[in-house]
Amino acid sequence: MVETFFARMNSHVFRPFRCGVHENPHHASAGLGSQTRGGHRMDVLVVEDEPLVREVVTHMLREAGFRIAEAATADAALALAEGAAAANGPPPVVVTGLHLGSGPDGLALGREVLRRWPEVGMVYITCHPEALDGRLLGPREHYIVKPIAPETLLHAVRRLMPAWAPGWTPSWAGLGHAVAVALGAAVTPRGP
Predict the structure, then answer these.
(1) Which pLDDT does position 134 carry in this prediction?
(2) How many Cα atoms occupy the beta-carbon half-sphere of 83 within 13 Å?
């Protein structure tokens, strides 16, 4: 079943999500822990109570080269962010659903994350943008509406990713070399 959803990722609009359909929160784990290896810093913390949505968002971001940690609740996400902040610094970007089952919602999580670490970027995912309740988003916040197009998610995350984030290369990083090659001014390395 998951393969079917991942197969759809090549289309322009990814549509596996149905708003208002939630799995039993008692079956979802409270927190899944960091998915990074060897204690390396995470690039993005994904927070979503629906396991399939969380898995798909995580897959999209991993395919783009981001190091991901996952959580199913706001409380688990804060615990992961605190641990990361103590070790290597907070995650540069948090992607969260607005409705996270019982407990604090995505907006409450965003307020707390930005209170503790104002440099962190927040991406809110929702089926219902009216759930933002007229709230004005700050410069480090962005929201996207389900169904999620992979390029929309990646654009939002990259827009909020600070240039200092380790392991992140801006899309224009090779531009200077490309221009030099186009102008015929590039120096090509010679082999032995």
Answers:
(1) 77
(2) 17
Q: What percent of the chain has pLDDT over 90?
A: 50
**pTM score, whole prediction:** 0.69
3.40.50.2000, 3.40.50.300, 3.40.1390.10, 3.40.50.2300: CATH of 2-182: 3.40.50.2300
More confident residue, 31 or 153: 153
